[in-house]
Design brief:
The structure is a single chain. This protein is α/β, with parallel strands linked by helices. A hairpin with a 6-residue loop joins strand 4 and strand 5. Helix 4 runs parallel beside helix 5. The longest helix has 30 residues. The radius of gyration is 33 Å and the shape is elongated. The C terminus is likely disordered.
Length: 263
């Protein structure tokens, strides 16, 4: 025969069980916090791998270890790897960082540096363009051979991509592109290393390359017929281009024929 316990006793038993569970959970939490904060889990060092051409690995590790201690108040187990990554990527020349834990108490960081290919704006502006067409701030060790790219900042990758295509096309005529610029109205212009200016006008990259090929494809014929130093090229004509040589101006509309002397 089973006798039901009074309600108040049953409630007391339930409360006792609940309190025991809460106590056990609190003990586990306290034990976990103690284990996580134990000195044995303190970050003891950082290993840096990857590109460190523009960084001294030893001084970089020392600098960022101090920054971690002051700004990242965590142990090896609880450190926010995203925060550490952002800390490394705030260093000049660092494009990206991958941060991983190395047991028992070290961090492994793999860096990718920016590879500068051009100045953004003007030489010495402090802004450079990398291989991906991204603009970053730094000062290169050797900037003598870097061209200049300019335009709206969101278009930096487009400017860099067109620069490469134009450079390849002009190199066939032993011409070197020194500056490429896209203005706010969408007009493209360029400067060659011999001081000549090119007006490319508006259009897609394919349009601009086609105009440039029309120019490079007939340049030898014109320079043989009208010798003179190249000063300016205007590629904005629908079926030709205007070429200015020192002492001669040639308008190529139906072919490299009609000329206008400028003496």
């Amino acid at each position: 025969m089973t006798t039901d316990l009074p309600l108040d006793i049953r409630l007391m038993q339930m409360a006792t069980r609940a309190m025991a569970v809460v106590f056990a959970v609190l003990c586990l939490v306290m034990a976990g916090n103690w284990a996580v904060r134990h000195p044995g889990w303190t970050i003891q060092g950082i290993t840096v791998h990857g590109d460190v051409v523009h960084q001294n690995a030893v001084s970089l590790k020392a600098q960022l270890t101090n920054a971690l201690r002051s700004r990242v108040n965590s142990s090896f187990l609880t450190v926010d790897l995203q925060q550490v990554r952002q800390l490394f990527e705030s260093v000049p020349w660092v494009r990206s960082a991958i941060v991983q834990r190395e047991f028992p108490n070290r961090l492994r960081v793999t860096l990718e540096e920016h590879k500068a290919v051009a100045w953004w704006g003007q030489t010495g502006s402090g802004q450079l363009v990398n291989l991906h067409g991204e603009v970053f701030e730094a000062s290169p060790d050797d900037s003598d051979n870097l061209p200049e790219l300019a335009g709206p900042l969101p278009q930096s990758a487009l400017v860099w991509a067109l620069y490469q295509k134009l450079s390849d096309e002009l190199a066939r005529m032993e011409l070197s592109l020194e500056r490429l610029e896209l203005n706010e109205r969408g007009n493209w212009s360029a400067h060659l290393d011999n001081g000549a200016r090119m007006e490319l006008g508006r259009g897609t990259p394919d349009n601009l390359i086609e105009r440039t090929r029309r120019f490079t494809g007939t340049l030898n014929q014109l320079t043989q017929r009208y010798p003179g130093e190249l000063q300016a090229v205007d590629l904005r004509y629908p079926n030709g281009y205007a070429l200015r040589l020192r002492g001669v101006t040639t308008v190529d509309g139906a072919g490299p024929g009609s000329t206008q002397n400028r003496r």
